[in-house]
Amino acid sequence: MAKKQESALAVAVQQLHNVARLMDLAPEVVKFLEQPQRFMAVQIPVRMDDGSMKYFKGYRSQHNWAIGPTRGGTRLHHDETEDDVKALSFWMTIKNSLAGIPSGGGKGGIVVNPKTLSRGEFERLCRGYVRAIAPMLNPDVDVFGPDMGTPPHVMAWFMDEYDTICRHHNPRAFSGKPLILGGSLGRDKATGYGLVYSVIEVLRHQKATLKGKTVAIQGYGNLGTHAANLFTAHGAKVVAISDQGGAIYNAKGIDPVKALAHKEKTGSVAKFAGTTAISAAELLEVACDILVPAALQNQLTKENAAKVKAKYVAEGANGPTTPEAEEIMLKNGVILLPDIMANFGGVLVSYFEQVQNRYCYSWTEQQVLENLETSITKSTSAVWELAVNKKIPMRQAAWVLALTRVVEAMRYRGWVA
Prior knowledge:
Rossmann fold; 2 domains; 46% helix
């Protein structure tokens, strides 16, 4: 019988314990951080188009609000679990702190494959979710952002339902909205661009650039497509990409714009002209300089970590690398850019969106991306320097910087000694 995959929450807690020993954190501090401060599980009744009723599980986790109101996306996926949502909210606490955002970590999820629902059923589910978790909703308590399965029109449904409940317009409660409803320019590019800015800064510390580097990207969604465009603009060459429909390879390079056009036409990057089909597993093991796992968690495991040929692994997804896999790759000389540092561009621009909503003033895309690059570069540099000075992995350095701020806020509040 195959060994059961370690849960995302178990991974997050293990990461906490590893850093707690390094920081000499008191046991009560660690105990407090292991679980969310508030968690809600709900059942959402939805009237289907055929008149029948179906019931969907939903979750919202507010991990820690020591620094400020919690903030994080809402993920719609058929394999979503309570532990996943708790873990992701934990990572959002770390990510927000590292990014310098005055927020704690939040996360939500609905157990559903949106593709199995009609548009009307999907909208009723999304509105039902907001009604079910309304007691946790407030822009000064918990800000909802986008994630897998929650594009701008879904965030608009969320906002509209909340407006109906509140009986007034409250755009600050949600980010990732359509521009006409208070969304921010640059939000679509934020996570992918942020990842590339982080890679550029790590290379700068090694007196190198992206020019001539080869890149493999697992997951050709929003993050992957925008990252591919910016990698290419800086002189790198994307040699492999994948999505749920398949994976492709071309050692001479893949045009990211044409690959996206093919995907939009056919539904997948598979069978894109001039490329060779490879398996999803082979993409993670392809010969390249930079590997970007930008799909789901637990993609790099102890079973395949030794086969990774990339010199740099930049985590686009949340939790794509298990602790055992990371240990193997670090021993093999791989430089791993952790998710909490490499992919916080999206949440940073979600914060920018809330700032713009509060002031009823929109920034230009250039302003958004310049502020994004400045913040990502500053955080990456701080993590790199601490990692080098303390001779610890970048993930541990990122956690140390972020947790130091969270624990300091907890102490000022009197939550811990």
